[in-house]
Amino acid sequence: MPGVVDTTNTFATNDVITSSALNNIIDQTLFTSDALSGGTLALVSGKMKVATSGITSNELATNAVTTSAIASSTSASSGVTYAKMQYAANMKALGNVSGSLGVVSEVSILDEDNMASDSATSLATQQSIKAYTDTKVAAVITRGTAVATTSGTSVDFTGIPSTVKRITVMFNGISTNGSNDYIIQIGNAGGIENTGYVSESSDRGGDVTSTEGFILTRASTSSSACYGIVTICNFSSNSWISSANISVTGLVSSSAGSKSLSATLDRIRITTVGGTDTFDAGSVNIMYE
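User: That's the sequence. What structure does it adopt?
Assistant: Structure tokens below.
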């Protein structure tokens, strides 16, 4: 029975060992299957070769493969290519979000236009970042449509969103046919509220108060042309605070006030004390955020 090799040449008793016989043994000796143990090597016509998929991690010593043994990439198809890297599940990236040195693992990629997950360890898609940013930027300041104050006793702005926290009212040359001072009133779905205001306006000639609305001027006349800004801010819940600087024909009036509504604000009104004077010039507009 042959051993691990098959010499292809045998000697009988008293046979002479010749150089030709030795050469044949050396040149024609083949390995048998007894020479193999495990699956690392394989025989092809009696000759040993590395088996297909024969070298596994079992045959590699720890740290046997070093970075210097890996070819440097010179193009998208050389070195360690994408195809040779670990597969990742859909919407996952490879990274480390442990907060310290650690093993690379799958990190979630979230496509949320509202960023609702508020995750400290997930990535966001470009599309979701753009959608979120566009929404927030668009929501920062909304400007209304300017309204001419050339008729009527009041101008209302309605449909103000419940999320609004600050309203800016802009006066551009407003005047009336009377001498009552200008006020701003606020309201909700139940209508404009015309009581319960704590409000005062002052200029260098004195001051005036009102509970009917946020009073903006003092000693107006029918020839007064008003320019300026009124800011109305949400203090808490349905409580609102006002602040204004209004130029009234040679005088600048400063005013402040407060008012708590019975429900969520959704409208404001520009009018005069008593609500009887008629607008005859100028325009008004609002911005809210």
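The chain has a mean pLDDT of 90.
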